[in-house]
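Recap for those who missed Tuesday's class. We walked through two folding examples back to back. For each one, the amino acid string is listed first and its predicted structure tokens come directly after. Nothing is annotated here on purpose, so try labeling regions yourself before you check the end of the notes.
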Amino acid sequence: MPKSFLICGGAGYIGSHMVKQLSQSGHKVIVLDNLSTGFEESARFADELIVADLADLDAVRDVFIKYRFDGVMHFAAASLVGESVSNPGKYYRNNLSNTLNLLEMMLENKVKNFVFSSTAAVFGEPKYIPIDEMHPKNPINPYGASKLMVERVLQDFASTHKLNSVSLRYFNACGADPEGELGEMHDPETHIIPLILQVASGRKESIEIYGTDYPTSDGTCIRDYIHVSDLCDAHWLAISKLLSYELQGAHFINLGNGDGFSVKQVIEKAKEVVSVDGKQIKIQESSRRDGDPAILVANSAKAKELLGWSPKYFGLEDMISHAWSWEKSLN
């Protein structure tokens, strides 16, 4: 049976892909986005785009008065680690205070199903690999701290208000819509795969490798990449479990593909993908950046157990090929 969903941040990278998936499955989708980092065109699969900020409590209340929602998905967060260090107030206001506004409106309107975009940044420096949900949470920047605070709020709201939620902790989101209709458009762009592909398309001069002396097989950092379509599948499974009462309370789940790829491996695979179009990728090696752990890889066993989730796109080729198709469409 079709459901009605509010997608906060549905004009952004991951949110827009979620909107498309829900819409194509026959559900009613309302997007609330302030368009500070999102794009109106990216929300075109929604039934309606409401341009408003979660800080505006009256505007958020009006949305809940106008529509009856079965569930809410929240993608609207500030997410630049460096900026969070230089401007922590922005991150606590946007990521914590604004989320509280949203939760209060949900409670006021008796909407009890919530899926939250969390992050691997809640863990901080890894104590062991792969990282499971029991790993200590000790974020090293305000971005991760603000997300962890929301997770704690959700625990309390589950106990006190019976608000059911799933917080999905992303590792490295990547890729683009396999049909080529959506993709990454961050400004500034900070993710490695689109940055590499911007070099191939001529929008950027070179890609920097920050550190080649890590204790890894090729000396570069290893990260766990997960395709945006697989992230959306996990969100759908999570909201479905909440709607069917299979999950109640507050749950916290890591999302990764369980394998790590080094920076050099990503670049080499990108070179293969773009070579078909006669493109090349210029590399520059630089010193390490502060706060970059050598290896970050998720243990996603809980996602498989609780949600029945497993990634479809677990290899670099699909992730990069889909992102390259999107990058080419921008030129």
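Example two. Treat it independently of the first, because the proteins are unrelated.
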Amino acid sequence: MMQKKELRTQLLEKRASLSVLQVQDYSEKIVKKLIDYVNWDEIKTINVYRTIKSKNEVDMNVLLDFLSNNYPDIQTDMTESKISPLQNIPKGKTYDLVIVPLVAFNRQGNRLGYGGGYYDKFLAKNNCKQAIGLAYSFQEVEELPVEEHDQKLDLIITEKEVIRP
């Protein structure tokens, strides 16, 4: 099994090779699946990551536009992906939905992030009713090293499918 650092390097390089049009196309497909999957009438609070375009993350702008146009009353908090200092992790909040970026994932709902443990701590310290990871299908790996503190996702959405662990 590959170690986390090797997996990160390999998959971030592959993600970096995506063209702007590929990122846009995949992001639209992924967010459309997310929009279709979620029962938005039941969502009061959501936490969404702020897209790091230079890292070719799945773009959240389509989702943010959808929310502002259709569900302006949903409280939407933004999280700065990797650049947030760990001491600024909110604690004790309740979120109906948390949208999480990732570098790699497996079918069991495990995720690999950038290596700072931000989202593992975030999910552990808040009442997150549902955590959904957004990724490109090529980020799926068969085996992922998992540690005790790693938090599982409830759902993973790629441009090809919705994965329910």
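Answers for example two:
The chain is about 30% helix and 20% strand.
The chain has one domain: 4-163.
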